[in-house]
Amino acid sequence: PVKLMVIACNTFTVVALDAVRERVSVPVIGVSQGVKTAISQSKSKTIGIMATVATVNSHIHKHVALEVDHEVLVWEQPCPELAGLIEQGHLDDYSVRDVCTEYLEPLLSREIEVVVLGCTHF
């Protein structure tokens, strides 16, 4: 029998975690451990989150971070094109590199120490 369910997709966690929990009799967890680890690795308590638009708009990672440490600064960066490019197989070409650079620049300008890749695609 199933003893635990892990939803290994940040976007699905945001959209459906509560609904799934209501419908099953086993514990259900999402994927927020990366945020906790990021905080523990950041001396300045300044972290960045790269995720899908839905995940960023939910602020789930920011909420988790603030539950762990109310002094942490969390900068969220939506990455609307990245998962699609990866799904299409653009792993080693300039389009992914250019998009990653575009998404990372705003985070790096804030002198973050740790970036959480808040999507299971990247």
Question: How would you briefly describe this protein structure?
Answer:
This protein has helices at 10-23, 33-41, 53-58, 60-68, 82-87, 94-108; strands at 5-6, 28-29, 46-51, 73-78, 114-117.
Q: Which key phrases capture this entry?
A:
single chain, 122 residues, alpha/beta, Rossmann fold, 3-stranded parallel sheet, 6 helices, 48% helix, 16% strand
Topology (SSEs and partners):
Elements: E1 5-6, H1 10-23, E2 28-29, H2 33-41, E3 46-51, H3 53-58, H4 60-68, E4 73-78, H5 82-87, H6 94-108, E5 114-117
Parallel strand pairs: 1-2, 3-4, 3-5
What this model shows, in words?
It is a single chain. By secondary structure, the chain is α/β, with parallel strands linked by helices. It has one domain (32-117): Rossmann fold (3-Layer(aba) Sandwich), CATH 3.40.50. The chain has helices at 10-23, 33-41, 53-58, 60-68, 82-87, 94-108; strands at 5-6, 28-29, 46-51, 73-78, 114-117. The strands form 2 sheets. The protein has a 3-stranded parallel beta sheet with strand order 4-3-5, with helices on both faces. A two-stranded parallel ribbon has the order 1-2.
How many helical stretches? 6
Give the low-pLDDT segments: none
Main beta-sheet annotation: 3 strands, parallel
Q: Total strand count, please?
A: 5
Please state the CA-atom Rg, rounded to the nearest Å.
Answer: 15 Å
Order of helices and strands: EHEHEHHEHHE
Q: Summarize model confidence as the mean pLDDT.
A: 90
Indicate the percent of residues in helices. 40-55%
Q: Tell me the strand order in the biggest sheet.
A: 4-3-5
- The CATH class label is Alpha Beta
Oligomer: single chain
- Proper CATH architecture: 3-Layer(aba) Sandwich
GO molecular function, one term: amino-acid racemase activity
Pfam families: Asp_Glu_race
Protein name: Glutamate racemase
Organism: human gut metagenome
